[in-house]
Write a structure and sequence with these properties.
Length: about 800
């Protein structure tokens, strides 16, 4: 396999349209460090984002506990899950002892002579993600010549040179070929988190090919051989396939068998173990529209909830890649563009058939300009074509096509963060991270960043779960950016809003019915009012959240000027049920910003997942719902709640419904939306814990929160304390137990038979006592015989 052509068709999807993507939580750097100007100083500092120079945030280092939930938030300029293109988002992370943000915006050198102690890996002045050795291997490795390069003239032969980077420009120690293609075929330090794609039928492929679960191979060339080949060829040379790798050998050793008892240097095709992590989550991407770095449906930002892995490391970084391809030609599958579709001898355009799609004959595409090349000129009217004797060029139109961007990968990476072990004395089942996004300035000044907001803006937690309040700001924003407090600074705090003053929509009801604070207000509640105590937090915690004790005793705190940029309250258990509205008092200029949030604390646990063709599941404790692949064609957000027994009965009673016959059999499960959740005759599976008793029978009943809805009996299988059943609709599923008449009748019959046998035996031996004596004598003899046998063996 000389050129890895087997993976050509799969790799093109990430290299196919000018767009940008920006990471807002955790804070994306876009190669920024702490510059006080709007443009970043160096777009080549750490990685190739291909984004606008004004993107990124100055600082962003936080820490997250293992197993906690972090809301990833981003924007992308062009659409996804839209019929006019193909796209996906690839989310990954890496950790390493030398991963760092650095202290200078200068790109890390690629010559150790220019680094302290002649070691760039350990020169902490420079920011670094991938290592120097990783980049050297990329620089010396032959590029995959089975890839689609269109009509681009690549300036080199190594993995530094790609269709998107034909000149091999270096950005940090990133490998351009790995950046542009996914899944990549050589070992990388990146671990997969998720792939969000416009076509969920590709998910099985992404899951199986991920380096999380599948090994990789690479060629090891001894240093002496490497230098010799580099000298002879005047360039680095590391084969990218097994056959050529194992052919590398010193010329004078060619005839020596590799298993001979002599030292022979030759190339070795080395297997790298997979990361041994779970398969990446894969699902359909949320809808976004073209030319819009903004929110999706409902006015909510693009978001993915990441459960932080158990790795306990102080130096980690997150990246998101936005891969978008044109719909003008096929970019996936066996007919995808590959090396055979590149520019051929005698032509100045790529060998891609774009004419047939527009009703033209392939042999007529050249004359009419319907070819894939840089800025082609097309003639859209046949009768005015410049073919033959017709030289009228009045109807020629030039298309703005750049073949190294018409199909493109963008990315953003976070500032470094830490992942730490969960405190052993932390008494809560789940930790939710609550952070601050955005930076100082109005929407024009911060664009393509965003203004201040809380992340997540609406947070749902169960009673006795924990919220980790943590955020950071900057002291180096442009001084003329709009905002409150000292110029150039970011500061945030949290204070609960005062009580509701006017009516508004019903919103979402919580179990307790308590609505504390009002989103429509702009003033905080009094901290001394016990009835407005924020989620049951202590007065000390409320003082710290408000900014009154941000590690600063007194000082100028009216606008938080003397508070620190970084704040960490740590995880705090929320004990009081209700709907809580809060604000940041500093960033509350009604004209152009309003930094507010809402937290729902409910007695019942709540979870959700986006269900599409790829299926999916939701698990809360011992309760779960599972959708098989193919159960849906379109994405749907599905929510699940587990109501404890008392809350469940209260919920049913509040609807004015009488419960089905029988008594409570434990907690109930509510699924939202309460409508058909699968297509046609498909079903999803629900499992929930129920008590088991020999004389009890458990039944599952279903209804909805519509008071007019009737009860429906669901067929369920009960085994080992779990009730499992199939369903097609959302609603409230309630377990009830009743007397198991059949089991009781069976037990009575068995006891009756046993009594009859005992009574009959007693009457028989009373009538024939000699039989009873003979039976006892026989039992005694057998016992004595067994005893003597054991003694003889001893």
């Amino acid at each position: 396999m000389k050129l890895l052509t087997v993976i050509v068709w799969l790799a093109t999807i990430v290299s196919h349209v000018n767009a940008d993507t920006y990471l807002h939580n955790p804070r994306g750097s876009n190669n920024r460090l702490d510059e006080a100007n709007r443009d970043r100083n160096n777009g080549n500092r750490m990685f190739d984002s291909q984004n606008n120079n004004r993107g990124g945030y100055n600082v962003g280092s936080l820490y997250y506990y293992e197993g906690s939930i972090l809301s990833i938030e981003w924007t992308n300029q062009h659409s996804c899950n839209n019929p006019n293109n193909h796209c996906n988002f690839v989310m990954q992370y890496m950790c390493g002892d030398l991963v760092r943000d650095g202290t200078t915006t200068t790109t890390i050198p690629d010559n150790p002579v220019n680094c302290r102690d002649y070691n760039c890996n350990t020169d902490l002045k420079y920011g670094m993600h991938e290592s120097y050795n990783y980049y050297l291997n990329c620089k010396g490795r032959v590029r995959n010549k089975g890839l689609f390069t269109a009509d681009q003239n690549l300036k080199g032969n190594s993995a530094r040179f790609t269709r998107q980077n034909p000149g091999g420009t270096r950005r940090g120690y990133e490998c351009p070929e790995e950046r542009d293609y996914y899944p990549y075929w050589h070992p990388t330090p990146w671990k997969d988190i998720a792939v969000l794609t416009n076509d969920p039928t590709q998910c099985p492929y992404f899951e199986e090919e991920s380096e999380n679960v599948k090994e990789r191979y690479s060629c090891y060339v001894p240093s002496g051989l490497y230098s010799e080949y580099a000298r002879m060829r005047r360039q680095a040379y590391i084969p990218n396939n097994k056959e050529e790798c194992e052919e590398i050998q010193w010329p004078e050793q060619k005839d020596i068998p590799k298993d001979a008892n002599v030292t022979v240097e030759y190339g070795q095709w080395i297997r790298s173990e997979p990361h041994n992590l779970p398969k990446p989550i894969c699902r359909q991407a949320q809808y976004t529209r073209d030319n819009h770095l903004g929110n999706t449906y409902g006015g909510f930002p693009l978001m993915f909830n990441w459960t932080i892995p158990d790795i306990n490391h102080e130096h980690c970084v997150f990246r998101i890649r936005y891969n978008i391809s044109t719909g003008d030609f096929e970019g996936w599958g066996p007919s995808a563009v590959n090396a055979s579709n590149n520019k051929q001898p005698g032509k100045n355009y790529a060998n891609v058939d774009v004419a047939t799609k527009y009703g033209l004959q392939p042999n007529n595409q050249d004359g009419r300009g319907y070819v894939f090349k840089q800025n082609p000129t097309v003639e859209i009217f046949d009768e005015f074509a410049t073919t033959g004797n017709n030289q009228d060029k009045d109807f020629q139109l030039r298309l703005a096509i750049n073949t190294n961007q018409f199909g493109r990968t963008f990315q953003d990476r976070s500032h470094t963060f830490a992942i730490r072990q969960r405190p052993a004395d932390l008494d809560c089942s789940q930790i939710h991270n609550l952070n601050v996004r955005g930076k100082r300035g109005n929407i024009v000044q911060v664009y393509p960043g965003v203004e201040y907001d809380m992340v997540p803006n609406r947070l749902y937690v169960a009673q006795d779960e924990c919220i980790h309040f943590q955020w950071t700001g900057s002291n180096t924003n442009p001084n003329n950016n709009d905002g409150q407090g000292r110029a150039g600074t970011d500061r945030s705090n949290i204070v609960m809003l005062e009580a509701q003053r006017y009516s508004e929509g019903n919103g979402r009801a919580v179990a307790s019915g308590n609505k504390l604070g009002h989103w429509g207000n702009s003033y905080p509640a009094h901290l001394n009012d016990s009835e407005t105590r924020f989620m049951g937090l202590s007065r000390e915690d409320l003082d710290r959240l408000s900014g009154l004790t941000h590690s600063q005793f007194r000082g100028e705190l009216s606008e938080l000027d003397d508070s620190g940029t970084y704040f960490d309250l740590g995880p705090k258990k929320v004990t009081s049920v209700g709907e809580y509205h809060y604000l940041c008092t500093r960033n509350n200029n009604f004209s152009n910003r309003s930094q507010k949030g809402k937290i729902y604390v409910e007695r019942q646990a709540r979870g959700w997942n986006q269900i599409d063709w790829n299926g999916g599941s939701i698990e809360i404790g011992d309760s779960s719902v599972w959708f098989d692949r193919g159960a849906r064609d379109t994405p749907q957000d599905v929510g699940m709640e587990v109501w404890q027994t008392e809350d469940c009965e209260n919920l049913i009673n509040s609807l004015g419904k009488s419960l089905p016959s029988g008594s409570s059999a434990g907690s109930c499960v509510a699924l939202y939306p309460q409508e058909q959740l699968v297509k046609d005759s498909a079903k999803f599976q629900v499992s929930m814990p129920v008590p088991e008793g020999v004389t009890e029978k458990v039944s599952i009943w279903k209804t909805t929160t519509d008071s007019a809805a009737q009860w429906t009996l669901i067929e369920a299988e009960v085994s080992n304390g779990q009730a499992t059943f199939q369903a097609s609709e959302g609603g409230v599923y309630v377990p009830r137990k009743s007397v198991n008449v059949a089991a009781i009748v069976g037990i009575v019959c068995a006891v009756s038979v046993l009594l009859i046998i005992v009574c009959g035996t007693t009457i028989y031996f009373c009538k024939y006592p000699e039989k009873w004596q003979a039976l006892k004598k026989g039992v005694r003899q057998k016992a004595n015989y067994a005893k003597r046998s054991m003694q003889s063996q001893v």
